[in-house]
């Protein structure tokens, strides 16, 4: 009997923690395509998640300040990640359906890029 109730607690805990895990994920709109059959994004996902902010800021600096060719273009990211909904409309940057914004709202980051750059 005691063993059974432990099992029950364990199962309950499992169910609760799984539903929290589901709540703790931002809902990201899917990309248009994979970068290649082997790789989803331009970089391996863990690296892209960790480094995209710095990479984009470095590219901005190269292009806007040093007038050199940047490694990354915002347009590349948006072409693949910000795609029309079934009604044919592109998500605007302050909506939760915008790829970049959906995650930044979730993690509490604000970026000041789209005042100059198009977000679509
Ligand atoms: C899956 C989550 C996620 C997605 C999607 C995402 N970001 Fe981020 N972004 C982050 C996190 C986390 C940080 C780091 C926040 C921090 O260090 O304060 C960040 C930081 C940044 C920064 C640096 C901000 C700063 O002040 O240093 C830029 C720029 C940026 N993201 C641009 C983008 C763009 C553009 C897109 C869409 C193409 C995008 N991000 C999509 C999670 C995401
Ligand atoms: C004051 C206006 C302004 C702001 C704000 C700004 N940029 Fe830029 N950015 C430029 C200009 C000007 C260039 C160089 C000309 C060009 O390539 O469009 C540039 C170039 C870039 C490039 C390389 C070329 C391209 O078009 O994608 C990237 C990547 C970029 N910026 C990312 C960012 C990111 C990320 C932020 C926010 C952290 C940001 N920029 C904020 C004006 C701005
Ligand atoms: C050819 C399409 C393509 C391009 C271009 C692209 N991505 Fe991705 N990216 C993907 C795919 C596919 C995924 C996996 C998630 C999905 O299926 O939506 C992904 C995942 C990500 C993630 C992680 C999301 C998560 O699940 O946590 C971030 C952050 C990201 N991309 C940022 C960028 C940035 C920034 C750029 C531009 C420098 C970019 N991507 C360019 C296709 C692309």
Note the overall shape. Answer: elongated
Question: Biggest sheet, in brief?
Answer: none
As a whole number of angstroms, the C-alpha radius of gyration is 20 Å
Number of strands: 0
Number of helices: 4
**Which molecules other than protein and nucleic acid are bound?**
heme C
> Structural class of the secondary elements?
mainly alpha
Strand content: under 5%
Helix content: 40-55%
Mean pLDDT: 88
User: What distance lies between the first and last C-alpha atoms, to the nearest angstrom?
Assistant: 60 Å
Spell the H/E element sequence: HHHH
Q: Name the poorly predicted regions.
A: none
Fold and architecture overview:
The chain contains four helices and no strands. The chain has 120 residues and is mainly alpha-helical. The longest helix is centred in the N-terminal third of the chain and has 22 residues. It is elongated. One heme C binds next to helix 2 and helix 3.
Secondary-structure blueprint of this entry?
Elements: H1 2-23, H2 45-65, H3 74-81, H4 99-107
One heme C (HEC) binds at residues 28, 49, 52-53, 56-57, 77, 81, 99-100, 103-104, 107, 109, 111, 113.
């Amino acid at each position: 009997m005691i063993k059974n109730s432990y099992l029950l607690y364990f199962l309950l805990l499992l169910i609760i923690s799984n539903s929290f895990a589901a709540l703790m994920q931002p809902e990201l709109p899917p990309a248009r395509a994979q970068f290649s059959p082997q790789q989803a994004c331009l970089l391996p996902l863990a690296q892209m998640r960790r480094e995209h902010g710095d990479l984009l800021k470095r590219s901005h600096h190269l292009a806007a300040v040093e007038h050199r060719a940047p490694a990354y273009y915002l347009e590349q990211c948006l072409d693949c990640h910000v795609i029309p909904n079934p009604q044919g409309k592109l998500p605007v940057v302050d909506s939760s359906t915008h790829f970049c914004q959906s995650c930044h709202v979730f993690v509490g980051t604000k970026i000041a890029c789209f005042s100059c750059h198009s977000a679509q």
